[in-house]
Amino acid sequence: MAGKVVEIENLVKRYRDLVALDHLNLAVGEGEIFGLLGPNGSGKTTAINCILALLRFDKGSVKVFGRQMQPNLYEIKKQIGVVLQNVAVFEELTVQENIEYFCSLYVQDKRLRKQYVEEAIVFSGLVDFRKFYPKKLSGGLLRRLNIACGIAHKPKLIILDEPTVAVDPQSRNRILEGIKELNRQGATVIYTSHYMEEVEQICSQIAILDKGRCIAAGTKEELKCMIKMGEKIHVEAAGLKPSQLEEIRSLRHVYQVEEKEGMLEIRCSGGKHNLVHILEYFAKQDIPFGRVYSELPTLNDVFLEITGKELRDSAALQA
Length: 319
Prior knowledge:
The protein is an alpha/beta fold and about 325 residues long.
């Protein structure tokens, strides 16, 4: 049975009158890609800084690889790779020199370090750019360099904070595939993002933070079962009578019906044949309709219902 790589228990961190972490509890299992979600000010960055022993906290405990984390616990820190949202590389060094420098902080053996640096360059798709300086790289390539510098020493725990911000779709896809490959190679990953589709694509476990607490945790399927909405059905139909809208609202599992510019949005809570029942009603009433499509709940729906906030709106407010 896999053990816990990170264990946070009753963690409290205050900044004077502000409570950044309010008895936070989290556990990251070995081999997981653990998604950490939350609006701005929810405590994600503070939690990460506490995991890395970069912040003192007021109460609780943080264990990494089974040991109480301390600022001078370098043997544990050597097993951690950190990729922050803000790119942190040296402009005066080439791609290869940057990766060599960061790898040298952890790996002293020159032969092994040379091997690791080359593997990081190949892994990140930077072979043709090894002699480039950072200012000559596109945003996507710069993000890849940032990741290569953080993972070149082959850490067992990798923390990635918004690694795909402001990159093109091709680079984003390459980064996500790279994260999954690192996980397949044995790394445990903690991943923060404001892109719900990314979290759904790669994360095996997810925790939602708000106001310094973990308010929901589980797989994406488990999280979706926590909310009322089970399915959203869209029907192109104009001019329905108020009585007909009320009859649709009274159908089994339907709890909300809205009409916007000729499109009917019907929200259902559970049920396997909601679309069939709704189309049967339209047929019996001889109501003409056009396009019809159904959507299952997304993580963004979960986030919105649980926190009352739109995560993408929260992301737009970031400085």
